[in-house]
Amino acid sequence: MQGKVKRGLSCDGPLCAFGPGDVARVRQGGKLVDEMQDAESLKLELIGAVENASTVDALEELRVSALGRKGRITEMMKGLGALDPDQRREAGQALNRLKDEVATAIDTAKTSMGDAELEARLLQERVDVTLPPRPESRGSIHPITQTIDELTAIFCEMGFTVAEGPHIESDFYNFTALNIPPEHPARQEQDTFYLPPDESGTPRVLRTHTSPVQIRTMQTTTPPIRIIVPGRTFRSDHDATHSPMFHQVEGLVIDKATHMGHLKGCLIDFCRAFFGVDDLPVRFRPSYFPFTEPSAEVDIGCTRAGGEFRIGKGDDWLEILGSGMVHPKVLENCGIDPNEYQGFAFGMGIERIAMLKYGIPDLRPFYDTDIRWLRHYGFVPLDVPTIAGGINR
Ligand code: PHE
Question: pLDDT tens digit string along 100-123?
């Protein structure tokens, strides 16, 4: 016993519960002396165990066995009742100190062990971000994805944000709200895929264009609005120039003073930036869409002189998109006052502009997942198009 008390006395630092004063006091009563010596030896044992514990789990076990509801220190506390009041106070204080010190030792060990475990994991899971990309990686970006990235970069530079909507649409969003009532001939023109109605009996379709996202956006956003909507569209049509699934990008601008001049400026700038031809001729041809008034189709200049097709100044025109000023009835259908707001919208086929820009002759291989076609027409993944870095490579 004596030896243990000595070791306790020689102990210093925050783990030491008993100083020389304690020893003097424990001499006062036999029971108290036993009690204190038990506490001291328990302390040495527990601190030793804390030092030897090698995992956070082991420390937690140790904590429960010492300080838990049935723990050894807790049990000793219960034994205090048998002492007379003076001794009880003294022994109680000592036990409390023991409790605090053991708890602190366990917490400190846990923290440093947690840090060490994290450190070890970080070392093990280290990724060297300075390594060059693996030369054998042969993946490439699909021309559709590349084209969407390019046009997104251009329109975002003009202050547009990207919006999305569902592929399965209600008849209302795809047609009615866009001023295409039932029996309107435009419904037949679009070769719609009809789906069984939903539980409430609402007729559903696969969206035939991205225009329903105009409605969804106007219903939920207070103007000014400036969005583009790249996405999939579906029409029951399949030949060399038509696919039942294809992609469109919609544009919508709504503000108090937006006019046809803005529509023209925006689309001329887009065409020239996208095709990388500064003096590209752009022509607006009167047209008809139920949801715009007036409406215009947009053509770009091209030439086939010498049997070679080229986009730019020339003797020919190519239609690439539909556009117009948003019809007042459409604004009204979305709860926007046409006397206060107006705007323009446009829509274009992404496959079509991709084929024109990159000289891809046939539409069908876009969806064939043929690795040879993807290697030939695909793009380098790290070559992300940006206005600063370049849209045209
Ligand atoms: N939604 C039309 C189509 O699919 C294109 C368009 C969009 C025309 C917006 C005008 C305004 O053909």
Answer: 999 999 999 989 888 888 899 888
